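Exercise: predict the fold of this chain.
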Amino acid sequence: MKLHKITALALIAGLVLSFSACGNQQSAAEAPRNRDSVVIAIATEMDTLDPTKGWGHGNAPILQSTLIKYTADMTFEGDLATDYSLSEDGLTYTFHLRQDAYFNDGEQVTADDVVFTINKCITDKTSADLAYADKAEKIDDFTVCITLKQPISFFLNTIASIGIVPEHAYDPETYGVNPAVGSGPYQFVEWKQQEQLILKANENYYGGVPAIKNVTIVFMTEDAALAAVKAGQVDAACSAATLANTQIPGYHVEAVTSADNRGITLPMVPEEGKTTPGGYPYGNNVTCHKEIRQAMAYAIDRQLVADAALNGYGRPAYSENDGMPWNNPQVKIDTDVEFAKKLLAENGWADSDGDGVLEKDGVKAEFTALYPSGDSVRQAVGMAAAEQVKAIGIQMNVEGTSWDDLAKRMFCDAVIMGWGAATPSESYYLYRSEGAFLDDFYNPEGYQSAATDSYMTAALEALTVEDAYENWKLAQWDGTTGTAMKGECPWVWLVNLDHIYFVRDGLSIGAQPIHPHGHSIPLIQNLENWSWEA
């Protein structure tokens, strides 16, 4: 994803020309003229509309159908597939396809299209993440088998966000910017990059034609989107918790529950002059101490952080997957400042010079926590946390910097980081030992644990969802160790953000599923369920 920042003045001027047939601006409180249309402002523009290159990854692609899809309560249901089965060895999934699915050009969706799409994702090694799959094969026109190289329990989570492209109308050079043919609830009309994306309802959609027939998505910064809302030029707009208390006639705020979290990654090894494969130094002589990490975790009142940094539009976070079916509820800890102080004292930390900062073996309990400049939420979360750990003698210096600089320093400095996904694969990549210090945003703190690896391997190879979830939970905390803050504490988790949207009165944005990390695209994944009140 890339964020395009366009000035509010330029975009609002364009909106006035585009959306006012008579050249007159619509007041914010005025009802929209077209009850079958919406204009949506989001901050993050997609890189591509080609599912084989990442479009829809982690969300619903809406221009294309998927084999299965998530429900609002995070369970699976059929989409193109009417049913599926798994072989006893966990290597072969068989999908039976519905026979009433058609692309918007009138061609029927068949096994050939599914096989073409899945095999392309496998061979192209894109963010669709099917490297563990071997091949897809056609059994008959409406039956497909997908064979894996090894059992992978989160395969269905991955498949749920891979849109099926039309083999007969697919051009790898142009489909990503002009996906004219698809079988999803909406079809492509036009994409003016860095400006807007226009869609219309797919009249051939087997799931029923959406109530909203015409959709215009404009790409705006949060400040520009707020100005557009005030001018009455958009019907729904992404916003931030810091702006959520703004009162705008004719609009209301919808706060959608998300797994989009913010926490602090803490390097777990001492500084020894070692570097990552890319040549970036790693290790930190303060955060390498488990008692420092755990003391921070216990000292912070997460509700106070949410209230102070998010205007109350958020909740305490205790893991990377709060609220998900594979979350272990035992990871939750209570704020206990006295326990934090005791933990530090018992491990030799003391304020010998009276400056308010603890020391041990000549090392001050002081370190830097980075955040990307311009991200007011991460800055506010970091500052709120820093103020609280200062009370137990830990000095965390919050510093804004560029993403490029952060990517080089995150192996030796703490980072105010964010994740959150609708798949347990995220836990795997965050904590697998082989991923430590690999010049990647996953596991920059260098977490390595044979016990965690063992549980995660068992979770990956599980043949039932229930067995997989049980092992994901044990990887977090088995009563002795784990990725949890009461365990090895590679992260100090802080808050889960609510995703904030200004929505015009009378517009229903449907039952939104728990949103993953990323504020913009998740809003539109259920677009076919939006409607205007009669």
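Check your answer against the key: Residues 1-29 have pLDDT under 50 and may be disordered.
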